[in-house]
Design brief:
By secondary structure, the protein is mainly beta. It is built from no helices and 13 strands. A hairpin with a 2-residue loop joins strand 8 (70-74) and strand 9 (77-81).
Length: 128
Amino acid sequence: MIVTRVDRALSHPVEQPELFQGQVRMQPLYRPDRDDGESELVAVFFDAGARTKPHVHDTDQVLQVVSGSCVVVIEEERREVGPGDFVQVPRGAWHWHGSSGAGPACHISIKLPGRTDWGASLRGWESG
């Protein structure tokens, strides 16, 4: 049995900062040893106003907000969500997510292994 907790002190800077705007840190919670359909879980810590660039996953993604206020934008829909909320982003959907800007935020990303297309259109992402 492995027990862990979401803790910013255990996080590290993102490996590809060009895929984010603002300061973002990640804490791997669970990464499968094999590509056999097991989900990966990563705590993502966003400083106020920090966010991902638009992207598309080959698999569904679930975001569970742990702290702060997060914004999730999918296609033409924008939602602000808070601690305890879960957001399901369907596979193939253009989206981005991060802090709503009111302060820092953290969510857990839950998804199956698969390709992420970071070359998705910005579609007005620059304006927030």
